[in-house]
Amino acid sequence: MTDLALPAPADAAAPAAPGLRTEERRRQRLAYLQAGPLALVFLVFLAIPLALTLMVSFWEYNEYEIIPAFTLQNYRDIFEGCLNASDLCTTARTYLSTLKLCALTWASTLLVGFTVAYFLAFHVRTRTMQTVLFLLCTIPFWTSNVIRMISWIPLLGRNGLVNDTLMGLGLIRAPIEGLLYSDFAVTLAFVHLYTVFMIVPIFNAMARIDRALIEAAYDAGASGWQTLWSVILPLTKPGIAIGSIFVITLVMGDFVTVGVMGGQQIASVGKVIQVQMSYLQFPAAAANAMVLLGAVMLIIAGLTRLIDLRREL
Amino acid sequence: MNDRPRTLAFYVLAAVFALYVLFLYGPTLTILVLSFQGPQGGLTFPLNGVSTHWFSRLWAGVGVVDIWAAFGRSLRLGLVTMVLSVVFAFFAGLAFRKGFRGSGALFALAVASLIVPSIVVSLGIGLEFRLIDDAIKAAAAATGWSFLQDHGTAMGLYTSALGAHLTWTLPFGLLIMFAVFNRFSPAYEEAARDLGASGAQTLTHVVVPILAPSLVGVALFGFTLSFDELARTSQAIGGRNTLPLELQGLTTTVTTPEIYALGTLTTAVSAAVIGVSLCAVLWLQKRRARLGLVKA
């Protein structure tokens, strides 16, 4: 996740002699052999499944089985009533709920992630200290998400630490009910889990900024804020874009965090798909998955239009 | 700028960073403490005495769920995913460095694997295996071959679930290998070749020892991401669940500190793996510097 640039071929010189050409061909064969297992995994467990999902999304189904016959009914079911502007359809409401969580999470993780990365990149002075603090931020990423979610229960619950403390201080009389199992709890858990996806690419982009530019801005009389806004922020944009893509796709497709932290009460697109899968309504779930994939791709396309990622990398 | 005195901004940002670290670790430490809750204690503070009661309850098993079998399955799957991630990502990294036709498309596929929502990947793999099952059953009915008749499902820990985990761990492994190979000078391999080493000898005696710390990093990603994977596994596991799936189920049914004990235990496994990996990286780097393989 740290370095998205493709490594340059070790030697790209055009082969001249026929002996060199057979050598080149041998190298190519070896390269295909070496990349083969990875390519096979992505083919069998990503490309083909996505193609099959697209196919099945146009199939019919009943209570017992899926029937390979072409229909648009699954998509019609999703958008049923959505042309009615006054009363939102279920799909629109679900997407709005998911998008709201997405926007809240994105803004929070960006703010926190940028601040933390900025501190690490520009205010921590030794490389060793930078590495240690950076690792401190990433270690939880390697531990269980579910455990990190349920660890909020003793804090946010009805008789949790937060309510007890607030009541002890006399700030509230009755415990606040909406701390756990609410939009707030879901967003909090998202920020807790996913800020690392912002910190890493933003820190990486910041680490690559030539320190002479900062010096130049300082010498030219820019204040700290001006340097941050006019020099560092524009140069950090690619990192922000990569982090945003991670956070947005993770939140858009989520059903676990929304389920656990929302007390199985909050709607999300991922949850709709999961429920349909559990009722064995595969074509309906597949159609929903395709719509979700389309929505996520639209958001990513929008983000990459704002910033030409390939050029910036 | 490093010789200037610390500004106020430094102290404010340091405070924000400290708060973030507290936010990051605080909740997990809370359940670590609460898992030692006394036998009469509940899910929240205060502690009603200190005991290992909930750990012994856990040892005896959680209700109808065979938590230890799930634990074993996750551990084994994590190890297999780890080994395959390291091997596949390392060789793919070598191939990308040579350059080959289609490398751009393969890279795009790897990135897509990271950003396609997990539930979509999981559903796709689930569907794929169901269609395979249907095809096998149809073939069994059509041919009457006896070895096909007892076919249950092709879905399982080391087929669909392993594939689902690899779609999540391999992109990380590949990106790490890219970062590593970008800084790896071909001069080492050329020197080995000039001294008469074969391709395989160059790999085992030169490339792998120099890159060992990074390979440990890929292994760390491979194991921990697999051990805790949930979303991609959910629709692609078949009958027997992994530990994270059981855990997710338990969040709605278990209302005792037993679940905290389980949380402490899984976190301890992850922490041990992270600790061992980081120590291995440090040790390998020290050894590398001592042997003069690479300028430290």
TrEMBL record, chain A:
* Database matches in PROSITE patterns: ABC_TM1
Matching SUPFAM superfamilies = MetI-like
Q: Which Gene3D superfamilies match?
A: MetI-like (1.10.3720.10)
Q: Name one GO cellular component term.
A: plasma membrane
Q: Which UniProt keywords apply?
A: Cell membrane, Membrane, Transmembrane, Transmembrane helix, Transport
Would you say which domain of life the source belongs to? Bacteria
Listed GO biological process terms: transmembrane transport
Q: How does it sit in the membrane?
A: Multi-pass membrane protein
Q: What is its main location?
A: membrane
Q: Where in the cell is it found?
A: Cell membrane
Ranges for the ABC transmembrane type-1 domain?
95-303
Q: Where are the transmembrane segments?
A: 30-52, 103-121, 133-153, 184-203, 282-303
Which protein family is it in? Answer: Belongs to the binding-protein-dependent transport system permease family. CysTW subfamily.
- What is the name of this protein? Putrescine transport system permease protein PotH
Species the sequence originates in:
Methylobacterium symbioticum
Gene name per UniProt: potH_4
UniProtKB/TrEMBL annotation, chain B:
| InterPro entries tied to this protein | Bact_Polyamine_Transport, MetI-like, MetI-like_sf
Any one Pfam family match given in the protein's UniProt record, by short name: BPD_transp_1
Start and end of every ABC transmembrane type-1 domain? 71-277
Segments crossing the lipid bilayer = 12-34, 77-96, 105-127, 155-181, 202-223, 259-284
GO CC annotation terms, alphabetical: plasma membrane
Query: Does Chloroplast count among this protein's keywords?
Result: no
Protein name (Swiss-Prot/TrEMBL): Inner membrane ABC transporter permease protein YdcV
Q: Which organism encodes this protein?
A: Methylobacterium symbioticum
Q: What is the lineage of its organism?
A: Bacteria, Pseudomonadati, Pseudomonadota, Alphaproteobacteria, Hyphomicrobiales
What gene name does this entry carry?
A: ydcV_2
